[in-house]
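Researcher: We're teaching a course module on how sequence relates to structure. For the next exercise, students receive a sequence and then see the predicted structure as tokens, so they can try to spot secondary structure elements on their own. Here is the exercise chain.
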Amino acid sequence: PAPLDVSVWHSIWALEKKKTLKDYTLKNSMFDFNVGYIGTAILGVCFICLGYFVMYGSGETFSDSAGAFSNQLIEMYTSSLGEWSYYIIGVAAFSTMLSTTITTLDASPRAMSETTKLILDNQNKNGYLIWLTILAFGTITIFFALSSQMGLLIKIATILSFLTAPFYAIINYILISSENTPKINRPTKFMHLLSICGIIYLLGFSIFFLIKGI
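Model: And here is the predicted structure for the students to work with:
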């Protein structure tokens, strides 16, 4: 339920939080990270289980239209759980999409603004608002252009997530292991090994995903 670049978002949010909370320490930041990491992992398992037990093998042909697809999804869950769950599933689906929209609309402009400052050495104070406007209009344009091709939109998002994951994993690993990170805060030998295994897994899975897709 979260792309790997969420690590960049969390870092930016942590810096913003430190501006308002003067006693915000590494321990506080790690607590925030662990809550988000564990919560995301649990939700990821739940999504896989729901997809496998409810959607996979159902024989249902999913519509490419966003509205029709949403109705199909809700109806599948209500048919499995009962009519009493219709409004609960509807509210849950709406809340999920709303929270995702709010999160992305805040995090992506912040990340792009910081990227622009670093690349162009430009300290434009309106960078966040500029990128927020670009992202909002860009998202609306893409949505209306592909609203009748939801399947294609999901495929594009999924492919991009898989292919960019190794890149973010590698640059995260390089940064946290470099001199830019205080030695006391660098990973342990076990974490180094786990990180390398994770990068190899992501690279392998991306290649497998491409081969299967082709």
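Model: If you want an answer key for the exercise: Residues 151 and 214 are 17 Å apart (CA to CA). The helical segments are 6-20, 26-55, 66-81, 86-120, 127-146, 150-177, 189-213.
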